[in-house]
Design the sequence.
């Protein structure tokens, strides 16, 4: 029973990270209809920035806040400088740009900070007030923090003017423009938010998987699986999808015969399965276009 | 005199290459030697590229001091991104266009495997490859390829023997990386167990694409094992050590040498959690204070100050690059017959050579039938601060 609980809780913790990445992916997908393949590497780079700031300031929370803010601004700049010029280009051009970004960030991080594994301390205190070998304080913190983050994102889109304008710009750019929403800037803001959320995910995952330039490559795939599973146009769905993928993966490894070798296969089967049978995902809307 | 030397060289060449009588001295003139290399300067294994950087720095400095026996070293190191097809492409370029004398310390098991046959068909030495796989020491079948470091399977065998001799009622759990490297270790360990393979109660693989090995560690603990053989690269090793600590699992923990670096693995995992780990070592860990006073460490350290002042000293691979450059320097320095075959023969004739960043008592030895330069290691236990060697040097050849 201990094993089952431990597997489930560890699954929820790593699933929370998938959820953060999935959420970031969905933010950009909603605005542009494309997957940003560089999402994971951008998050990794942000985490390195947080690490460097932590080395300089000595406070992990300060480093965290600064890194998230810096990522937000960097996301906007990337959209304005790199993504906007190819906005109306064919899909392939855009995908190549994303993959190019992926490689650039990966290599830059290695160049600046070298490839040895680094430790980023946890945001959460070691002592959680009770003794348990079922879950560590960091994992518990990650789960709570991610759920709180989702709530903030939800409130932002539901109740703030900017959030509503962003939704409008994504859903119907022409009408949004007519009522005075600056669609271009809303897209840039979407990129900024996505990269800030990615940064949060990176800083949360670094104490679990350790910081090095390839930290996010595995996580990103599971994040995609989570996003697709939950629904690519539903932020709440993406978070649920991430959590479900994390837990299912852990269960499958342990309880499916021969499952110990099938972790990644499992994620890929999930992606293909969802695309075949329920392309909108569990919680996504089916998009109908009038022609 | 000169004629005699040429004749000797030809004789040596014909012995090695099995009949081709022409002494091939491509890439070697009276004033220079051209040496090729591939390293993953980009891509997933780029952490290892510091070896290439260290070697480049070594020969650069050597050239300012006049090179080796009046010959400057032209070291051409190309990026293969750890991708075997690119290795083939780059090595072809080095051999056929750049006309290198030989290939030195090209890095990686899959990458070297891809050029293994090619190098031997072309009769171009593939010297001191940077991989611990066991297949690089087959002089009858592949006379132009030679390894360097102790092989993974030999290390696995050492661990198995230690468990059998020191643990009462061992119940063994194994975690291994699901590729050539992990399987080499695993198979060596199984060979060492002999007919006691049923002592293994659980054996789980992980893929390098897995974000964590947490679920594997939970399952291994659940198997009731009291010995844990940890065959993983630094990042996953650190995760495993920390997770075991978190869930309060305290088996005899044998950690593969690949991940024994204090700064790359144990510090991230937590030094307290790393206490009582056991590994087999053959190199001096640069972060380990006990070596600071030794002559070898000081030589390396002074060299680092001069040539790579900004490098991360904790990275054990700078020491590896320095060691292997020293070995090649020694081979070329003492080589009369500067042809491809001659250099190969010289490489197969190293006797009791000490290297600055290799543990005291472990010596480089090769012979025409022994293409494994270093085959010894010593067990070492982590005391919470540094590795403390114990027992004696275990020579796998004896």
Sequence:
């Amino acid at each position: 029973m201990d094993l089952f609980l431990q597997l489930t809780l560890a699954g929820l913790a790593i699933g929370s990270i998938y959820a953060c990445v999935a959420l970031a992916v969905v933010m950009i997908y909603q605005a542009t209809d494309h997957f940003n393949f560089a999402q994971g590497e951008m998050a990794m780079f942000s985490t390195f920035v947080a690490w460097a700031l932590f080395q300089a300031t000595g406070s992990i929370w300060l480093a965290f806040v600064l890194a998230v803010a810096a990522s937000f601004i960097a996301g906007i700049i990337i959209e304005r400088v790199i993504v906007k010029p190819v906005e109306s280009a064919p899909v392939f051009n855009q995908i190549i740009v994303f993959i190019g970004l992926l490689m650039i960030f990966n290599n830059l991080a290695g160049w600046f900070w070298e490839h040895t594994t680094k430790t980023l301390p946890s945001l959460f205190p070691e002592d959680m007030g009770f003794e348990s070998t079922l879950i560590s304080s960091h994992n518990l913190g990650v789960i709570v923090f991610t759920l709180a983050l989702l709530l903030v994102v939800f409130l932002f889109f539901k109740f703030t003017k900017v959030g509503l304008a962003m939704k409008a710009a994504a859903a119907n750019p022409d009408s949004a423009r007519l009522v005075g929403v600056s669609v271009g800037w809303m897209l840039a803001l979407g990129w900024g938010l996505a990269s800030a959320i990615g940064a949060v995910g990176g800083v949360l995952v670094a104490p679990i998987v350790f910081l090095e330039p390839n930290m996010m490559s595995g996580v990103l795939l599971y994040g995609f699986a989570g996003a697709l599973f939950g629904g690519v146009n539903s932020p709440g769905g993406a978070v649920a999808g991430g959590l479900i993928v994390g837990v299912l993966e852990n269960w499958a490894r342990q309880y499916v015969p021969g499952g110990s070798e099938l972790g990644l296969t499992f994620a890929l089967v999930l992606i293909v399965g969802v695309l075949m049978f329920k392309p909108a995902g569990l919680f996504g809307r089916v998009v109908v276009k009038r022609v | 005199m000169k004629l005699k030397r040429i004749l000797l060289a030809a004789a040596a060449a014909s012995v090695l290459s099995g009949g081709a009588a022409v002494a091939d001295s491509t890439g070697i003139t009276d004033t220079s030697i051209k040496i090729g290399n591939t390293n993953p300067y980009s891509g997933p294994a780029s952490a290892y590229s510091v070896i290439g950087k260290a070697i480049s720095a070594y020969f650069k400095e050597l050239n300012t001091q006049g090179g080796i026996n009046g010959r400057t070293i032209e070291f051409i190191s190309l990026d293969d991104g750890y991708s075997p097809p690119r290795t083939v492409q780059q090595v072809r370029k080095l051999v056929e266009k750049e006309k290198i004398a030989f290939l030195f310390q090209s890095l990686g098991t899959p990458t070297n495997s891809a050029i293994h046959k090619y190098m031997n068909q072309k009769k171009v030495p593939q010297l001191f490859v940077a991989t611990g796989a066991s297949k690089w020491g087959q002089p009858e079948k592949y006379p132009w390829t030679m390894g360097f470091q102790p092989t993974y399977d030999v290390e696995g065998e050492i661990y198995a023997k230690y468990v059998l001799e020191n643990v009462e009622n061992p119940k063994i759990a194994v975690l291994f990386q699901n590729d050539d490297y992990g399987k080499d270790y695993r198979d060596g360990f199984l060979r060492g167990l002999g007919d006691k393979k049923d002592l293994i109660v659980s054996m789980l693989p992980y893929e390098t694409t897995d974000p964590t090995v947490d679920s594997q560690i939970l399952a291994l603990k659940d198997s009731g094992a009291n010995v844990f053989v940890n065959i993983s690269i630094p990042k996953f090793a650190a995760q495993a050590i920390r997770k075991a600590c978190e869930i309060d699992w305290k088996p005899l923990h044998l950690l593969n040498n690949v991940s024994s670096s204090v700064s790359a693995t144990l510090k991230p995992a937590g030094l307290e959690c790393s206490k009582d780990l056991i590994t087999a070592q053959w190199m001096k860990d640069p972060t380990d204070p006990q070596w600071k006073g030794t002559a070898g460490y000081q030589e390396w350290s002074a060299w680092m100050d001069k040539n790579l002042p900004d490098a991360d000293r904790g990275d054990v691979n700078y020491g590896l690059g320095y060691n292997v450059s020293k070995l090649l320097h020694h081979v070329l320095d003492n080589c009369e017959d500067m042809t491809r075959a001659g250099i190969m023969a010289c490489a197969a004739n190293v006797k009791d050579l000490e290297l600055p960043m290799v543990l005291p008592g472990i010596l480089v030895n090769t012979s025409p039938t022994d293409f494994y330069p270093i085959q010894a290691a010593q067990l070492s236990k982590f005391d919470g601060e540094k590795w403390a060697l114990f027992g004696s040097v275990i020579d796998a050849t004896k």
Notes: Residues 153 and 235 of chain A are 8 Å apart (CA to CA). Chain A is about 75% helix and 0% strand. The two ends of chain A are 55 Å apart (CA to CA). The mean pLDDT of chain A is 87.
